[in-house]
Amino acid sequence: xxxxxxxxxxxxxxxxxxxxxxxxxxxxxxxxxxxxxxxxxxxxxxxxxxxxxxxxxxxxxxxxxxxxxxxxxxxxxxxxxxxxxxxxxxxxxxxxxxxxxxxxxxxxxxxxxxxxx
Length: 117
What we know:
mainly beta; 4-stranded antiparallel sheet
């Protein structure tokens, strides 16, 4: 099992910044990729950014140039630095861990990010 706990959400004005963090525990040896997803009210959960164990990254077009994902494999953490926030970034942000060997993924409980205009 892998447990994920997010932190760092909050309320900010447009143009501001937040840094989200996610700590993994349990069977962390089985973690492959990690990432951040978000879900706004009435909308589907969508990919924000993912990072492989080796450090390769991919971002949603809507956040490229503004968000940066990083991870520390030794500490089993992944972070999302969010700059130049926009109201449309408002959502619950979820940390995700993909596991090797078809073991399935794990999700954190989510952290609310609200960006005011």
